[in-house]
Each structure stands twice: as structure tokens, then as C-alpha cells.
Amino acid sequence: MPAVRLFEVGPRDGLQNEPRQIPVAEKIALVDLLSRSGLTHIECASFVSPRWVPQMAGSGEVLRGITRAEGVSYAALTPNLRGFEEAQAARADEVAVFAAASEGFSRANINANIAESFERFAPILAEAKKAGISVRSYVSCVIECPYDGPIDPAQVAGVVEKLLDLGCYEVSLGDTIGAGTPDTVRALLERVLTVAAPSQLAGHFHDTNGRALDNIDVALDLGLRRFDTAVGGLGGCPYAPGASGNVATEAVARHLTRKGHAHGLDLAVIDAAAEMARAMRGDADV
Ligand code: HMG
Ligand code: MG
Fold it and tell me: Which residues form the Pyruvate carboxyltransferase domain (predicted)?
């Protein structure tokens, strides 16, 4: 494992917002290229309702169609037991449950309050344990929620603690709307680190306001070594042309190199994947 591990979420978090229905073959081509880049984790599927997120409808076909590279874990989001069973049938190497730090986002995203969401997660963890499948987790809106406003770090810490108690191997802290600044991210992490070790946490920064690299620096400073990124900065809002999405894998990798942190990625392959990703959303010349 390199000193800093990047978890590629482009084929899932990036593509899920794209307005154009992207053919399964294009998604498979992107994942296959990423598989040759040195990444150890690629999230490429999401077994959610196709009515809620139409773009992820072909997730089973994607997982069945990719050419699996040795040493790469292919991950899928699973909101409930049905999603887990479909992910398992399609041979996901690991799955992720996704919670929120705010009631407003939890309701909007998964139609459940936070307590109800944990009732859905428990059977996933039980089945995954039997099957020997690792379960990762997300907490959305760790800084600010589009419905409930700024979030108290203590509220995030409570959700993180519950996810770890449930048996998740890692909690990814989602700055879902890119509202974080170095000050608010530091305050958040200092509180969360009272309930979790740095090795149990990942930073998931959306670059909406251009602060993601600064926020990653704060997280590095506090000992975190795991970050979620998306090639080409995929994930921009379809209703805000030019808006940034997830922090770009190629930008984070170069930033880490400048700071002297090994990341194990072949930048020529990552750059080619970023170009492919941009072409998939129709802005190849950007
Ligand atoms: P619900 O309406 O409460 O559940 O949705 P339901 O059980 O009543 O089912 C509703 C419909 O979904 C039914 O179909 C079910 O069969 C179907 P219908 O009768 O309407 O045709 N259904 C499913 N279909 C496929 N796979 C399943 C599944 N389960 C039920 N597993 C539910 C609850 C969770 C299903 C819904 O709210 C949902 O799918 N939400 C997904 C939202 C989502 O994917 N959001 C994006 C991912 S989170 C994210 O991006 C943030 C993150 O990146 C971190 C960050 O940045 O903060 C992770
Ligand atoms: Mg996200």
C-alpha cells in the first residue's frame, strides 16, 4: 500500500450526476483503463433505485464486464440488503453503506432518517461478514448540509462512531457540497479523531469552491492518508455548467508528489483516463 491511498470514485460518484445516459461499454472502458494506473480501489457501481439515480442502472453489467486486475478492489454502493445481494451476485470485492450527518440530507438522499438508515445497514454488515466482504462507509454533509445548514462536528463524530461499531473498516467523510475550508475541516477532524484513528478515516472532498487541496493538506497534517478522488474531476452539477465535482485524481496525485508523499499512480495512465472521463461527459476539449 502506498503512503497515501487514493480511492477512485469517478465511475460512481463522478458519473452518477451526468445527464447523458452513458453506455455500459464506456463505463467498462474507463474502469479497465483505471485498472492499469496503480489504483488499488475503484468504486464503479451503485445498487440503488434506478428511479432515484438512473445513471447507475447498469451497475451489475459494469461489474460483470470489467477485466479485473490483480490487487484492485472493485467497490459498490449498497443502501440496503437488496443492493448488497445484487452487488454480491455481480462479484463486488467490497461494498459501502452511506449515511449522513444531517437529517435533511439523509431523508433527501435515501428516504430515511439517520436512525432508520442504521436499521438498513445492520443486515448488510451481518451478511457481508458471513460472505467475507469488507464494508466501507460514507458520512455525507460533514461540514454543511444544503437543507440543514452548518453541521456540528460532534454530530459527525456520533455517526462515525456508530459506523465503526457496526463493523465498517473505514469511514469516508464527505464534504458533499464542497463547503469546507481549512478551519472548518480542522475543527471537524479534531473532533472526529477523538472517536476514530486516522487509519479508519478517509477524506472525500468535493471541489465546488476550489478548496479541496487545501482541505486535503489539513487532513494530511492531522494524519489522514486516505482520500477519495475522481479522474477528470467528474461529478459537476449538471445544472451549474463549469462547476467542479469531486477533487480530481490527477490534481491530488501531482499535489502529493510535490509534497513528497508516495501514491503509487502512473500519471500517464491517470491523465489518459481523465481525458476519457471528460470525453464521456462531452467536454473532451476542456
Ligand atoms: P425508498 O423509496 O425509501 O425505498 O428508497 P423502497 O423500498 O420503498 O423502494 C423504492 C423503489 O426502489 C422500489 O421500486 C424498490 O423496488 C426500489 P419501485 O416500486 O418504485 O419501482 N429499490 C431498489 N432498486 C434497486 N436497487 C435497490 C433498491 N432498493 C429499493 N437496492 C432507496 C430507498 C435507498 C432505495 C432510495 O432512496 C435510493 O435508491 N437512494 C439512492 C440515492 C443515491 O444513490 N444517492 C447518491 C449516492 S450518495 C452520494 O453520492 C454521497 C457520497 O458520494 C459521499 C458524499 O459526497 O457526501 C457517497
Ligand atoms: Mg460524493
Answer: 4-271
- Asked if 153 and 191 touch (Cβ cutoff 8 Å), the reply is yes
Q: 55-64, pLDDT tens digit by residue?
A: 999 999 999 9
What is the rounded distance in angstroms from the CA atom of residue 264 to the CA atom of residue 178?
26
Residue 251 near ligand 1, beta carbon < 6 Å: no
Q: What is the ipTM of this complex?
A: 0.98
Q: How far is CA 221 from CA 86, 179, 262, in A?
A: 39, 19, 15
Q: What is the pLDDT of residues 189-207, one digit of tens each?
A: 999 999 999 999 999 999 9
3 state SS of 193: coil
- Rounded mean pLDDT, 65-85: 98
Residue 11 lies in a domain: yes
Q: Which of 141, 145, 168, 237 is catalytic?
A: 237
Residue 189 inside a domain? The answer is: yes
Residues of the domain holding 266: 5-280
State in Å: Cα 16 to ligand 2 middle: 10
Q: Tell me, yes or no, if the pTM score tops 0.90.
A: yes
Number of domains in the chain: 1
pLDDT value at 34 more than 50? yes
Q: Whose CA is nearest to atom 22 of ligand 1?
A: 49
Q: How far apart are the C-alpha atoms of 121 and 211, rounded to whole Å?
A: 32
286 found inside a domain: no
Answer yes or no: 237 catalytic: yes
**pLDDT tens-digit map of 224-251:** 999 999 999 988 644 344 446 899 999 9
CATH code at 192? 3.20.20.70
> Which atom of ligand 1 lies closest to the CA of 140?
57
> Would you say the CB of residue 117 lies under 6 angstroms from ligand 1?
no
Q: What is the mean pLDDT of residues 176-184?
A: 96
Ligand 1 binding pocket includes 98 (Cβ within 6 Å): yes
